[in-house]
Amino acid sequence: MRPWNQLLRLLRHLPRYSRYWVALHDDDELAVRRARHEQPAAAHPPLAGWDEFDELRAVIREELAALRYAVVATTPGLKQQPRPPKPVRRPLTAQDRQERREDQRKHDLIVKQVLPPRG
Asked: Which of 4, 7, 16, 73 lies 20 to 30 A from 64 at CA?
């Protein structure tokens, strides 16, 4: 007999469109319990579950948003221009995180040179 934890780990790796995930996301009682203990949403989706279909959906969403923006922005008689669409969030890799840390380090150096020291 296998332990329950192993079953739960297996279930987490099922595709998002499986009956398990559909039932989990369609459970009203679970939604109420989650709302009570709501954690802030992650800024980026996890890399572990990201596949080519997620990437395809992200590209389609971005292209549709760009098309919508172009149509609305070129409409004559607008009182104000629409904001350009934001890119769809994708998982961050270790390389992405390292580049962000490096950018932050450079930013901190510039701020240190420009602003007087606090004291």
From this structure: 16
Q: What does the alpha-carbon distance between residue 52 and residue 58 come to, in Å, rounded to a whole number?
A: 10
Name the strand (E) or helix (H) holding 11.
helix 4-12
- Whether the CB-CB separation of 72 and 78 falls below 8 Å is answered with yes
- Give the model confidence (pLDDT) of 13-67 as tens digits: 888 788 888 888 888 888 888 778 766 655 788 888 889 999 999 999 999 999 9
Token pair of 68 as six digits: 């919508």
Residue-wise pLDDT for 78-112, tens only, equals 888 899 999 999 998 899 889 989 999 998 888 88
d(CA 72, CA 66): 10
Residue whose pair of structure tokens reads 């930013």 in the numeric block: 107
